[in-house]
Write a structure and sequence with these properties.
The protein is 24% helix and 26% strand. Helix 4 crosses helix 5. The two termini are 26 Å apart. Strands 3, 4, 5, 8, 15 and 16 form a 6-stranded mixed sheet that branches. It has a 6-stranded parallel sheet with strand order 11-10-9-12-13-14, covered by helices on one side. It has a two-stranded antiparallel ribbon with strand order 1-2. The protein contains 12 helices and 16 strands. The chain folds into 2 domains: 191 residues, Medium-chain alcohol dehydrogenases, catalytic domain (Quinone Oxidoreductase, Chain A, domain 1); 131 residues, 3-Layer(aba) Sandwich (Rossmann fold), CATH 3.40.50.720. Bound molecules: NADP nicotinamide-adenine-dinucleotide phosphate and zinc ion (ZN) (2 copies).
Length: 350
């Protein structure tokens, strides 16, 4: 038995999102059924809906920053009960056996990480559908807890924008005394600023937009550099311990590599559609490192949520109704969002 659920789906790469219905699997004994209250809008939703990375299966229901209330649990679920607040991020399953899974790095599962949307669903072989929908059925091992002191709507983007920036800042051991650059002040970028500041670093935002200077400072940046201003960029040469690049479209990364100190690291989290190129000297002369980072595992995602609970960190959001989603995508593409859209999923019912 399956449940028919309302959702917003895109039927093809060049089509808008529209009201549709999807099937959710009958919950198994380890499954949690979550009624979705809020869902954040990540730039990855747009890349996938528009097939910019290839491999999108249609209809596609994006959304991987999901918070809601538990509606039902299977007989073997131990950590959640009906009525609990709960969350689902970018992953809904993995093989659980490979070395990555055993090291709590399910996002790098060597079989195949099962992403919240556009992945093969393990239990049914169907495709997974994301959070722009009434509810979702997820194995309890991939369901997260939101600290009770945090409001739900601004917590939703922690599930992707939060963990994607927390994880590399932790891995590269960002701390007091370090200078950290954040490139791009969007959904990921604004959370990176909050975390790098909370870890004690001197935080510099690189943005193309002068209109974001004041906001960046309020979010926790100590300096803001307008990336189109060559002189200001030159002044930052060889001064950074770490630069986190969150930019979603093609841009020059040599410029940023040259701002690193000797042995400094640049981490890419943004995923432009086009390949990235850079000059070898940008790495070699000062033995710089270029790395990547993909979301985070379930254990680290819960650690990040608990950290946010302790420090009262949530996202800066603009709440929208689901019928505003196509307009929201256009605004994200113009970098016109402060700093994450979150959909009030109650609007799907009305
Ligand atoms: P977003 O809200 O659109 O933010 C991206 C920011 O990049 C913009 O606000 C803008 O900042 C800057 N930017 C955009 N185009 C640019 C260009 N041509 N040149 C220079 N700067 C530009 O997107 P997001 O949701 O934060 O996601 C960012 C990227 O990360 C996307 O590619 C997304 O798919 C990817 N992502 C990766 C992971 C992962 O696990 N690695 C997880 C989630 C998302 P300014 O206006 O300040 O210049
Ligand atoms: Zn995302
Ligand atoms: Zn695995």
């Amino acid at each position: 038995m399956t449940k028919i659920t309302k959702a917003y789906a895109t039927p093809a790469a060049d089509k808008k999102l529209q009201l549709d219905t999807i099937q959710r699997r009958e919950p198994g004994e380890k499954d949690v059924v979550l009624d979705i209250l809020f869902c954040g809008v990540c730039h990855s939703d747009i890349h996938t809906a528009r097939n910019e990375w290839g491999g999108t299966i249609y209809p596609c229901v994006p959304g991987h920053e999901i918070v809601g209330r538990v509606a039902k649990v299977g007989s073997k679920v131990t950590r959640f009960k009906k009525g609990d607040k709960a969350a689902v991020g970018c992953l809904v399953d993995s093989c659980r056996k490979c070395s990555s899974c055993r090291e709590d790095l399910e996002q790098h599962c060597e079989a195949v990480p099962i992403f919240t949307y556009n992945s093969p669903e393990k239990q049914t072989g169907w495709v997974t559908y994301g959070g722009y929908s009434e509810n979702i059925v997820v194995d309890e091992d991939f369901v997260l807890r939101i600290p009770s002191n945090l409001d739900l709507a601004p917590s939703a983007p922690l599930l992707c924008a939060g963990i994607t920036t927390y994880s590399p800042l932790k891995r590269f051991n960002v701390k007091k005394g370090q200078k950290v650059g954040i490139v791009g002040l969007g959904g990921l970028g604004h959370m990176a600023v909050k975390f790098a500041n909370a870890f004690g670093a001197h935080v510099v935002v690189f943005s193309r937009s002068k209109s974001k200077i004041e906001d960046a400072k309020k979010l926790g940046a100590h300096e803001v550099v307008i990336s189109t201003d060559e002189l200001s960029m030159k002044k930052q040469k060889n001064t950074f311990d770490l630069i986190l690049d969150t930019v979603s479209s093609k841009h020059d990364i040599d410029t940023y590599l040259n701002l690193l100190k000797r042995s400094g690291s640049m981490v890419l989290v943004g995923v432009p559609q086009e390949p990235i190129s850079f000059g070898a000297f940008s790495l070699i002369f000062q033995r710089h490192q270029l790395a990547g980072s993909l979301i985070g595992g379930i254990k680290e995602t819960q650690e990040m949520l608990d950290f946010c609970g302790k420090k009262n960190i949530v996202c800066d959001i603009e709440l929208i109704n689901i019928d505003q989603i196509n307009e929201a995508y256009e605004r994200i593409l113009k970098s016109d969002v402060k700093y994450r859209f979150v959909i009030d999923m109650g609007s799907l019912k009305s």
